[in-house]
Design a protein that fits this description.
Number of helices: 6
Structural class: alpha+beta
Mean pLDDT: 92
Distance between the termini: 23 Å
Number of domains: 2
Strand order of the largest sheet: 2-3-1-4
CATH topology of the largest domain: Alpha-Beta Plaits
Shape: elongated
CATH superfamily of the largest domain: Lrp/AsnC effector binding domain/regulation of amino acid metabolism (RAM) domain
Largest sheet: 4 strands, antiparallel
CATH class of the largest domain: Alpha Beta
Radius of gyration: 20 Å
CATH architecture of the largest domain: 2-Layer Sandwich
Length: 155
């Protein structure tokens, strides 16, 4: 059974969210605690799934020229099995970096990373449009990334 998050757990999560490489000793010092209980709390938070993974956030502009595209997708029919099929296929595309089921005018929101507009056109034509049950696809192209954060506002 998962325990509720207390104030110390939340402070640990805030510190790790800012910098996942922060070691238990440093966290303990920041919270005026000893290292061992902090380490044990971190392990519990990982085990209980509060911490899903540790990642490096890359500066993609320094690695390779690319563009980010948000594609809003509607299906012709919204049957559960058809939606599940779309999700399974969308997850397999390397260009899709995030995929959400959404309510409102569209069924899905995809965040894509592609090399350029030609690459997006190829992706849209040969992958998304080729899927069964696709109704409407509308896309927005990112001109400037004003904020990109994995920050979750812990209260």
């Amino acid at each position: 059974m998962e325990a509720k998050l207390d104030t110390i757990d939340r402070e640990i999560l805030k510190i790790l969210e800012r910098d996942a490489k922060t070691v238990a000793k440093s966290i303990a010092e920041q919270l005026n605690l000893t290292k061992t209980p902090v380490y044990e709390r971190i392990k519990r938070l990982e085990k209980e799934g509060y911490i899903k993974n540790y990642v490096a956030i890359l500066d993609t502009g320094k690695i390779e020229q690319s563009i980010t595209v948000f594609s809003f997708v509607s299906l012709d029919a919204q049957k559960g099995s058809l939606m599940d099929d779309f999700l399974a296929r969308a997850k397999q595309f390397n260009e899709v970096t995030e995929c959400y089921v959404v309510g409102g005018e569209f069924d899905f929101l995809l965040k894509l990373t592609v090399k350029n507009l030609d690459a997006y056109y190829d992706f849209a034509k040969s992958k998304i449009a080729a899927l069964p049950n696709i109704g409407v696809v509308k896309s927005a192209f990112v001109l400037n990334e004003a904020k990109n954060s994995q920050h979750f506002p812990l209260l």
